[in-house]
Amino acid sequence: MERITHWIDGQAWSTPAADRQGDVWDPATGQVRARVDLADGETVRLAIDAAAQAFPQWRDTSLARRTEVLFAFRDLVHRHRDEIAAAITNEHGKVLDDARGEVARGLEVIDFACGIAHLLKGEHSEGVSTGVDTFSLRQPLGVVAVITPFNFPAMVPLWFIPLAVGAGNTVVLKPSERTPTAAVMLAQLWSDAGLPRGVVNVVHGDREAVDELLVHPTIRAISFVGSTAVAQHVYATGTSHGKRVQALGGAKNHMVVMPDADLDLAADAAVNAGFGSAGERCMAVSAVVAVGECADELVSRITQRMGALRTGDGRRGCDMGPLITEEHRDRVASYLASALDQGAEVVVDGRSVTADGAPEGFWLGPSLVDRVTPQMSVYRDEIFGPVLSVLRVETMEQAMELVAQHPFGNGAAIFTSLGSSARTFARGIEAGMVGVNVPIPVPMAYYSFGGWKSSLFGDLHAHGADGVRFFTRGKVVTQRWPDSRATGQMPGGPDLVFPTNA
Ligand code: NAD
User: Fold this and answer.
1) I want to staple 220 with a disulfide (CB 3.0 to 4.6 A). Which of 141, 165, 310, 335 is the partner?
2) What average pLDDT does this structure show over 92-112?
3) Would you say the pTM of this structure is higher than 0.90?
């Protein structure tokens, strides 16, 4: 049985017999494929110490050299993208092409971070007062922690680490214990790219490891991505221990379809965004809101497309893979039963799927639930599975009100052919990322990614300009260089009045 170990101070790190280990499953076979070491507080402290030791030298490494490492890392991730994608599929279950897409989106953040020299440039004002100049700096924070979820084992760590490292910080990454391999592969590639040891460390683990990161005094900032319940815990504990925290939580993304929309485009989008990665994406569409008379036709076109989807092993060219665990699959399936009980209509029931894969895989086929109301649990909760709900309303205002009333506010999309509707929606909708005829509006790396309400705790979003600000702190220098020998003017002597500019 393969054993997945930590990566500390530039090397694979394990105790002879780790006290605690976790199972890593292959969700498409329903078998345990590896065991992962789970860190206790002492192991986490070793990783933090390695990062703390590496910090002064890495902070003082020139921008030219740091950029060189980023470019080399980019090249290596590009070269190894298929291996990383295969590791993701083995542990997460998403189909290979989707896993490749994840790595490609991660690469975009590395591309962005390769411009770190430009991104860290400060401002300079000459002559703010007589003979006085002012300039601003952005400096690294020190040791930062990155804690990531199971569903994007490569992309989410890459949202943060390239910018954190590029800005001169050192990092302890705690990836999901359910999908740990990609993180170790990336750590190895950082090392191969010439990153000094200790700058990026990986500790595997669960709550015990996370709780040590949240309170340890050396950790200056925490980037967390995961469920809202854990995000709240991370934000509350981290900030109460004096840390800067950005905690991205769960989601329930609405796709509003107007009667004037291109219904084929909308039906394709609903199917792609609802069932890609088996709905285990924080930007998955899980609620389609049909406005006015288009509802019946939209449901019919979505249903038709769902008939063509093949659920099965992600290594076999299927459209949709399994869910992450048996327990999660059962939980997602239970929403279909409760929707029926509560009066919704289950148009396509994924519980009866015949999957192209091992019988023990964690299968649930794409499911469509119509005539859902805002009170039903299938709508209220984040399900994180291949269950698409359809709600019917009369006006766009009612659709927008649904989004406003929902506790999550990650993404929201409108499908329409009217610019005026699109503009009203984009300006007024209560969500952090908005799509117009785009179902999964994940911003490019040079913009920032983040939701509103219970989808994000903290002020700054991930990557883009916010990411640079998150991993740096500002400093403003005011300076003068009086030269009394050259000018013949002697300093004016003590003056206790508050200085003003002249
Ligand atoms: P999770 O909250 O269970 O785990 C996230 C991380 O927290 C993991 O590293 C895990 O080991 C750790 N963790 C779990 N329980 C903990 C606890 N009690 N105390 C401390 N740490 C704990 O999330 P998940 O199931 O891995 O991922 C799915 C969730 O992540 C969904 O809710 C999804 O919406 C969310 N997500 C959000 C975004 C976003 O950008 N907003 C992106 C991806 C995933």
Assistant:
1) 141
2) 98
3) yes
